[in-house]
């Protein structure tokens, strides 16, 4: 009997895009200009992912905590997002990129929710790269929502409490069906996880880059992936066992 094809290998890079505000402050510009420059860096990151055979790229674009920023800044971020989804959709689709959004989307403006739904539906069969935008996203909020979902399924008699294992738990997360990140990059020199993919990054490698997000170039992604490949991933096993 012929052997089944091995699952195609995936490379999931997740990025905490940090430093837009500092980039703007260093130029005496308003913070919003930093976010605009950050959007250009998003385009470069996607190009880098395509060139470097990344199969999944997840970008922390707006955290659950970002709602606490001044309303003018939140509005500008929403405006940029709206602009980005509208202006890039055709080219993302043409390049075979599947777009997904994770986070508490009900909190987003209604027109952005509609744009997201349309974008996800249009691109759902694309295979070149899965681009996931984390929007109104927080890892703790995600795990809490999953716990609520599990409890409801048990309440309805659809699930036995004893049947809940890591696999079932995973399927209730926003990222259900997506591979865990292999590499998490954070820019701007800060070394924190900031509520990003808490469950999913259990075995991820972390690379912290001393570059502000608007200055992110393809070479930075390439450097981070090279560093990741030099690391010895053991998933808790001893040397040489993984
Ligand atoms: C962190 O920089 C960045 C954000 C809060 C938002 C990220 C948004 C973008 C890159 C632009 C829009 C994205 C898309 C997908 C269209 P910061 O403001 O916390 O910087 P600071 O730490 O220097 O103040």
Secondary-structure element sequence? Answer: EHHEHEHEHHEEH
Roughly what percent helix? 40-55%
Distance between the termini: 29 Å
Summed up, the domain count is 1
Spatial arrangement of strands, main beta sheet: 3-4-2-1-5-6
Question: Which runs of at least 5 residues are low in confidence (pLDDT < 50)?
Answer: none
Largest sheet: 6 strands, parallel
Beta percentage is 5-15%
Count the helices. How many? 7
| CATH H-level superfamily title | Decaprenyl diphosphate synthase-like
Rg (C-alpha, Å):
19 Å
Let me know the number of strands: 6
Describe it.
With 242 residues, the protein is α/β, with parallel strands linked by helices. It has a single domain (12-230), classed as 3-Layer(aba) Sandwich (Undecaprenyl pyrophosphate synthetase). 42% of the residues lie in helices and 15% in strands. It has 7 helices and 6 strands, in the order E-H-H-E-H-E-H-E-H-H-E-E-H. It has helices spanning 20-25, 31-51, 71-94, 110-123, 139-155, 166-171, 218-230, and strands spanning 12-16, 56-63, 97-102, 129-137, 183-186, 205-208. Strands 3-4-2-1-5-6 form a 6-stranded parallel β-sheet, with helices on both faces. Residues 17-22, 35, 38-39, 42, 59, 61-62, 66, 80-81, 84, 133, 213 line the site of farnesyl diphosphate.
